[in-house]
Amino acid sequence: MRVLVADDERLMADTIAAGLRRQAMAVDVCYDGDGALERLGVHRYDVAVLDRDMPGRTGDEVCRWMTGASLDTRVLLLTAAGGIRDRVEGLGLGADDYLTKPFAFAELVARIQALGRRSAPAVAPVLEYRGLVLDVGRHTAVRDGRVLGLTPKEFAVLHVLLRAGGRVVSAEELLERAWDEHTDPFSHVVKVTVMTLRRKLGDPPVIATVPRAGYRIGPA
Fold first, then answer.
1. Keywords in UniProt for this one (predicted)?
2. For 101, 109, 126, 155, which has the most beta carbons within 10 A of its beta carbon?
């Protein structure tokens, strides 16, 4: 899952991003509305976490623009104003959810995961393939009863491949969905991650390489 976090409180934004990355999410961070619009015009996000009260172009304006652009990205608004009128107003802008500061980080994660499951196409909270079970909510991966000790990036890559349901996923798409904007697109990070993931998954292989195309879940 790829998430955009936009909040002018830099410590807050960076702390949220660090926590979400530990949950195997790819996270881009910006500190104003203009930065959010710039990234939304370049990358496809599953969820955007927007602070309503950013100076300059506000989270409300970004949300309104996203609604007008008919983006598939789900929107979670953050604000210090927790009144019913504020929540109704925020949802009326086209936001999918609303969270009042201060909040418990576990609740933020749960809400983002729920919004991710409502993205297009909808994603099941538990993905399975021939004895392999990936539980996104619990952040666990098991194969034939054996718990897999996956890194956040390995988990993210496996999630993207399982979500594709057998469709070939290019290295470029994996890079877009599982890494953030600071990753060197010419690096071998995808190839190396798939290699270590295969080793942990064991036999029989469940990730097939499609020459000059990418990877998919299924027999070679």
1. DNA-binding, Phosphoprotein
2. 155
pLDDT tens-digit map of 64-96: 999 888 888 999 999 886 666 666 676 677 889
58 burial (CB, 10 Å; 0-12 / 13-18 / 19+) is middle
Quote the pLDDT of residue 184: 72
Q: Tell me, what CATH number does 112's domain have? A: 3.40.50.2300
Distance CA 194, CA 208 (A): 10
What per-residue confidence (pLDDT) applies to 87? 65
Grouping H, G, I as helix, E, B as strand and the rest as coil, residue 209 is: strand
Domain count, the chain: 2
How many residues can be counted in the chain? Answer: 220
Determine the structural domain holding residue 97 and report its residue range: 2-117
**Judgement on whether residues 106 and 170 belong to the same structural domain of the protein:** no
Q: Give CA–CA dist 61/71, Å, rounded.
A: 14
Looking at the structure, tell me whether residues 154 and 211 fall in a common domain: yes
Tokens of 118: 């409502």
Token pair 């290699």 in the structure block, residue = 195
Ranges in the chain, pLDDT < 70: 81-88, 90-91, 119-124, 185-186, 220
- Judged by phi (left if over 0) then psi (alpha if -120 to 50, else beta), residue 106 lies in alpha
Phi and psi, residue 106, nearest 5°: -60, -35
Classify residue 205 by its DSSP letter. P
C-alpha 161/C-alpha 179 separation (Å) is: 14
- Classified as helix, coil or strand, 43 is coil
Query: Which pair of tokens denotes residue 168?
Result: 């070939």
